[in-house]
Amino acid sequence: MIPDGAEPFKGKINQEITVTIEKEGVYGVKCTPHYGMGMVALIVAGEPVNVEEAKAVKHPGKAKKVFDELFAQAEAE
Ligand SMILES: [Cu+2]
What we know:
Layout: E1 25-30, E2 40-45, H1 51-55, H2 61-76
Antiparallel strand pairs: 1-2
Bound molecules: copper (II) ion.
């Protein structure tokens, strides 16, 4: 769930990471051990150019519900 040409990023457990977003669009973020429990985030940088592709991604368990809520919230802003 990142725009075309954007760099994927990955942090280690319990370590802060700093990411500079270079390409506009939406970025899905998941906590690997708690993904199925819905521990996910959505970053919207500039225009959400890849939102339809991002919405088409399938997610396990509660992650789907949380992403649906995050997309609805992003669209309401
Ligand atoms: Cu987690």
